[in-house]
Each structure stands twice: as structure tokens, then as C-alpha cells.
């Protein structure tokens, strides 16, 4: 006989050394803890019926099952352990004939109830059920081990210019045109919109934007301006403004924490959007450049409103009017960047941190972001609208057209 009736545990021989009914076999001291523990057991009536023609298990199979049970790594839970206890008792002693324990002897009573509920189940059938139950636990554990070993990162389908993956509750949106320094083409704007919509709805806790290769992003792809048919520049400007407005609106409205991992130089719109991100981590190789006047253009991404708020008007003027390129350390000192990391350890340090952030309660983060950003949303949409209206005119100006022509003649690299 293997049970230790006076104690709060099911014997090791029955359920394995990791499978005690209550941890450490401790006895229940107070009434409250007894009640809680019994509630936790949540024991349903155990009705085990033999299927008509089940094959008889041998004594050897039954003993093997007992050994396998000891090797389980995961605790199967009190409910299953009670079933195992009851089946073991039935298999080795037959139907329950011992007197019913008192109402306040919670554990003994739970065990007695489980055994008694087996009624007149034969000892052979109890062995059979015991062996089947152990076998199902063993195969559940081995299939969960296979799942755990599988790569966790899932890549989202349907993107060409960006790579979108989800892992550890983080959706990562990676600019992926390294040969163009990750310049944002029309297609990429649309794909980022789609990826943000997906990330807003999926199970991830946070979203991250980053770049593939040496650059974070070289801003708007200047080819976006050269692809217009002759005589269609106005239409191109109008459509561009519509797309830009929608694109920036998705950053304004993004409901989860949005983190920029700035792996290298950032130019133009990829810099202005940082004001709409909740955290900006930068490698010490990153630089921050918004050469709008040099390109005959004007600020976007709500930077005309957010940059003065973040860094003060004087510093914002240097960047947005006079094209001052900031180092990562300067951008951090001015509040645009949260923290700078040495490039050598950048990815490792940042992703370890993000993994920890992404394990925080998802809904709490979302409502907190809403509190931090919500009041500003209306204002930000108004700013976005105005910036796009101004840019629409800029794109038709000689100043802008000349700057773009110069770039393609390779006279005016930034
Ligand atoms: C729907 C429309 C919305 C518009 C929103 C408004 C947004 C505004 C902005 O973002 S303004 C900023 C625009 N960006 C630039 O002006 C950057 C232009 N690029 C450069 O100055 C340089 O390429 C560089 C400094 C980024 C890198 O220089 P370098 O290291 O010498 O590399 P290459 O110049 O040889 O670059 C390799 C290859 O990539 C092409 N490329 C890089 N950036 C862009 C770009 N932004 N647009 C188009 N093409 C770009 C470059 O031309 C090279 O191509 P090639 O190999 O010569 O074919």
C-alpha cells in the first residue's frame, strides 16, 4: 500500500516525486487555507466508464506507467493527480471500502471522494485507465516540448519592402531596402500602414520600427517625385499629400507602445516620426537629419508641433529650418532619443530590454499610452493635416523640383 493517509500528499510511488497533491506534503493549518486549497482542487465527479472492448493492460504495463509518471517534468495539477490516486487505489485495492473522512478533513475527503466515485470499476479496468491517463500525460508533455523547441518568430506574409515579424509579444516592422538606404517608396508607405494596422490588432504587446543594414532610413524615396507622368505633377502632389496624411495618422493613432530602434543614420520623415514614437533607442552610429529647407520642402510627421515641445523652439529651429544634423548623443540630450547604446552591443541590449517590456500587462500599457497621448490626438491630426497641405504646395515649387533634380544629378548628396 503506497498511500500515506495521514499526510497531505499522494505517495511518490503513485504519482511521482514531483506530483504531490500539495507542495512539500505540508499539512493544512488554517480553515481559510483549507477551503482555498479545496476550491483549487475543483474536483469534478469522476465518472470513468470502460469502453466495451478495451484491451487489458498487463501488470508490467501498469508498473511501467508508474515509472513514466515519475519522469514527468510538468506537474499535471491536483485534479489529474486525484484521478491518478483514485485509479491507483482502485487498481491495487479494489472499490473504496474505507470510512468516509470528516467534512473538515478536506484533503482526505477529496481523495476518498475521487476513489469512491469509481464505484465498482474492476481492478483491471482501473489499471487500464491509469495506464491510458499516464500515457496521455507523457505524450502531451513531449508534444509541448517539440513546440517549445520550434522557432518562435513568425514572419507575416504579403510584404515586399518591409519585413514584419512577431516574437515574444513584439511585432517588428523592419524597413528592408538596404541597397537604397531604406528610402521609403510609395509601396513602402502603404505596407507600413498595413503592418501598423495588423500590429494594432494582433496579440503583440508592443511594436518596434527598425531598419535593415547600415541605415535606419534615408527618408522619402526621391523617386516618388520623378515617377509622375508629364503634366501630372499636381495629381502626384495631391495623391502624395493624401498618402502622407494617412501614413502619419496611423502613427498618431497607434494604440500600443511604439518603439523606434534606430540602428544607423536617419533622414527626413524617418526622423520626424520619432516624435510620435513612445521610446527611441539609438545606436551611437545613428545621426538625425531633417534637411527640409535644403530640399525646398517643409516639416511633416507633426514635427512642426512636437519638436519644439520636445527640445524647445531654438533647437527645433536648428533642425527643422537650418538642416542641423544631430549625433545620437545630441539627439538624446535634446530629448528626441531616449537612450544611446554602443553599436557593438546595441542589438543585444535593446532587444533584451524590449523583451522585458513586452512581458508587461498588455492592456495596462495600452490604456496608459492612451492617457499619455490621448489628449493630444486631435491636435496632432490637425497639425498633420496642415503640414500635408503646405507640402502639397512645396512639391510643386521650383525650389523643390530643383533640389530633386540636383540629387539625381548626384550634385547634392546630404
Ligand atoms: C508620399 C510622399 C511623402 C513625402 C514625405 C516627405 C518626406 C520628406 C523626406 O523624407 S526628406 C528626406 C529625403 N531624403 C534624402 O534627401 C536623402 C537622399 N539621399 C542621400 O542624400 C544619400 O543617398 C545618402 C546620404 C542617404 C547616402 O549616401 P551614400 O552613402 O553616398 O549612398 P548612395 O547615395 O550611393 O545611396 C545608395 C543608393 O540609394 C539611393 N538612395 C538613397 N537614399 C535615397 C532616397 N531618399 N531616395 C532615393 N534614392 C535614394 C541612392 O540614390 C543610391 O542609388 P544608386 O546606387 O545611385 O542608384
TrEMBL record:
PROSITE patterns: ACB_1, ACB_2. The keyword Coiled coil does not apply. It is an enzyme of class 5 (isomerase). Its EC number is 5.3.3.8. InterPro entries: Acyl-CoA-binding_prot_CS, Acyl-CoA-binding_protein, Acyl-CoA-binding_sf, ClpP/crotonase-like_dom_sf, ECH/Chromodomain_protein, Enoyl-CoA_hydra/iso, Enoyl-CoA_hydra_C, FERM/acyl-CoA-bd_prot_sf. It is found in: Peroxisome. GO terms for molecular function: delta(3)-delta(2)-enoyl-CoA isomerase activity; fatty-acyl-CoA binding. Residues 58-143 form the ACB domain. It catalyses: a (3Z)-enoyl-CoA = a 4-saturated (2E)-enoyl-CoA; (3E)-nonenoyl-CoA = (2E)-nonenoyl-CoA; a (3E)-enoyl-CoA = a 4-saturated (2E)-enoyl-CoA. SUPFAM superfamilies: Acyl-CoA binding protein (SSF47027), ClpP/crotonase (SSF52096). Its main location: other. Keywords: Isomerase, Peroxisome. GO terms for cellular component: mitochondrion; peroxisome. PANTHER family: ENOYL-COA DELTA ISOMERASE 2 (PTHR43684:SF1), PTHR43684. This is Delta(3)-Delta(2)-enoyl-CoA isomerase. The gene is ECI2.
